[in-house]
Amino acid sequence: MKVLEIVTAEEAGFCFGVERAIDMVFAAVEDHKDKSVYTLGPLIHNPQVVAKLEKINVRTIDSIDSIDNGILIIRSHGVEPDVYEKAEKKGLHIIDATCPFVKNAQKYARNLIKDGFQTFIYGDPDHPEVKGIQGAADYQAIIVKDLDDIKKQAIGNKVGIVAQTTKSPESFREIIVYLENNVEDLKIHNTICNTTEIRQRSAAKLAEKVDVMLVIGGKNSANTNRLKEICVATSTPTYHIETADEVDPQWLYKKNKVGITAGASTPDWLIREVVQLMNEENKELNVEETEEKEELNVEEAEEVEEVSEPETTEEEVSVEEETVSAEEQEVKYSDYDNADLRKGQKTTGNVVEINDNGVYVNVNYKTDGFIPLRHLSHRPVEDAHEVVNIDDEIEVVVLTLEDDEGNLILSKKQADYEKSWEKIVESYENDEIIEAEVTKEVKGGLVVDVGVRGFIPASHVAIGYVDDLSQYVGETMRLRVIEVERDNNNVVLSAKKVLEEDRAEQKDETLASLEEDQTVEGTVTKLVDFGAFIDLGGIEGLLHISEMSWGRIAHPSEVLEEGQKVEVKVLGVNREEERISLGLKQLLPDPWEEFAEKHYEGEIITGKITKIVDFGAFMEIEKGIEGLIHISQLSHRHVKTPDEVVTVGEEREAKIINVDADQERVGLSLKELEEETEKKPVSKKQKSSSNKKKESSSSSSGGGGATIREIVGDIFDQGN
After folding, report:
1. 256 contact partners, CB below 8 Å, separation of at least 6
2. Same domain, yes or no, for 605 and 646?
């Protein structure tokens, strides 16, 4: 039975820019659930992906004139500067998913115009990427489609050129050679994406080795159509398809090897569907061939043998077995000397060059290896300098052996990925704590960077409930790995477990160190009607409302607030029940001592009625000092209830009738104050004295006045 060999090109499917744009759209949908999300034009040239985005309510618009609010995604192709200005004026929230390579092309074109260069853009005039670059160049650049097009132009002496990122490198080189021979001052920016070049070379090499070639991608995708052109040029039967449904089983009939490549806008799941379908079709074709052979008679079978291919000789079989063995060894072994690098091997090297498209690394091979930006880190990278420096020693994995120019294609991301998984699994098995930065908040928790994507459920972020998870974004947290599924790239972590362990250790230390009458510092964790809970370090103590102030307070919030640092006094420690009682007023000056020094019996004082009880009323006469006006001291008249005389909140004058600082008591009287203000009856002697004073006063003009006897007599009489 024939087994159809299916080979996928080494570089196929999403490029860095497209993958980045897709991630940004999903993040926007997750982070802005209350807003509509729009992409200006199809996010990528793949109708299947666009359809999937529509299912999560990401809508495609042709112009921002059709919307007035919401999230606007600038797709990876980029747009003209005036689009940003228009969107900002409308108040739209802009998320720029322009590919970094396209951004570079825009920047270079803008700078060339600014520096006075006659500027050319090599690309398709109708492609949105080229329109964006032209807009960045203030619409002063000249767009050329090919060498013939540029030959028609009037070339000056000072020329600059950039290229659409998905154009053919070979055609661009032809244009460069022409310009070099005709321009004195030529400035070249090779903005063709390195991944595009690798993808095209990989497709060409594969097409030469297979019987039929399938190119997967949108029919309106420029880079996918270019891949088809490259494969057709090898004379290998080539078919451009968008989905697995378009595969014709007859394309595979009597074929031994099928090659697959895909455009930069083609997701992995579409590629897998095509491969799976071909495997199923392959089985059906084998069944049909078997049934067909069984129906042939011996004579027909002999004819078939005469026209069939020659039988494989023993020598050829031996060579084939050796080849398979070598391929198996290539996968099996990864620690060869660098002179014998193999695909999938991990090695180390030194960074020797950094440019806009990636990094060159010396791995002691016959040529330097190249790391494209997308393979530099698991995070999106716009500038390689953010990740590595010249002379850095880094670990890399060999992705592709020598290309047409003799370069290795390497991946630091893959090496970091393997190392990260090793660390995660080791931490999980050994129950070790790891540290990771929180990169974003998502529904149900936080995403952290542990070399791979890690997830902290909301219930594991802290010991208690956290209302606002966004406060943790950008923070580095100590975590324990609580779940690992490498096959599903699933890592679940917990900060809560680490905090609980720290708290348990701290609690034991705190309990052992606490003593009565000790002054300690704590943090207010919770306010309740009857007091406040204070975190003393792993354990909480209760500060009762009665121990907060010398005066009367209605609620703890009058004195404290949650999160506040405060010094308190330890009033009691029960280590067995892990209960701690605390006091705050004990650290404040005792108002009774000061009161006893400043005030005395018989003094008239002003205060506020704070409380009425059956037996009288309490009046605050100083902060923290309350005196009792007994019901018998409220008035001369008979008083049934205190509220007949006083009301809560009323300010009154009262006379101090007793002070007991030791018992912290002050007796007050309103009745005695009434007695002093009442007028007493006047005696005959007082009246006589009064008349004499009047006579004396009337004769004072003659120099007379009151005698000593009269003055003393008056005082004496008043005293009686």
Report:
1. 2, 4, 5, 211
2. yes
- Show the domain range for 398: 339-416
Which residues are designated catalytic?
A: 129
277: in domain: no
Domain of 620, CATH number, reads 2.40.50.140
> What is the per-residue pLDDT for 299?
44
Tokens of 280: 């199923």
Answer yes or no: do 660 and 608 share one domain. Answer: yes
Domain tally, the chain? 6
Question: What angle do the packed helices 194-207 and 222-232 form, to 10 degrees?
Answer: 30
Find, among 47, 44, 86, the residue nearest to 63 by Cα. Answer: 86
Three-state SS annotation for 456-471 = EEHHHCCCCCCCCHHH
Angle between helices 100-114 and 128-136 (to 10 degrees): 40
Tell whether 39 is covered by a domain.
no
Asked whether residue 56 is domain-assigned, the answer is no
Over residues 233-260, mean pLDDT: 87
pLDDT tier for residue 114 given thresholds of 50, 70 and 90: very high
> pLDDT digits over 542-590, tens only?
999 888 887 778 899 988 988 899 999 999 888 888 888 999 888 887 7
3-class secondary-structure state, position 616:
strand
Phi and psi (nearest 5°) for 305? -65, -35
Do 672 and 714 belong to one domain? Answer: no
Name residue, tokens 């008979």.
638
The string over 397-410, giving b where at least 16 C-beta atoms fall within 10 Å of a residue's C-beta and e elsewhere, is bbbbeebeeebbbb
Cα–Cα separations (whole angstroms), residue 500 to 69, 496, 539: 45, 6, 11
Residue 674 has pLDDT above 50, yes or no: yes
| Domain-embedded: residue 34 | no
Q: Which amino acid is at 534?
A: I
- 3-class DSSP state for residue 266? coil
pLDDT, one tens digit per residue, over 461-515 is: 988 788 888 899 999 999 999 888 877 778 899 999 888 888 888 888 888 888 8
pTM: 0.39
Question: Of 643, 658, 677, at which residue does a domain stop?
Answer: 677
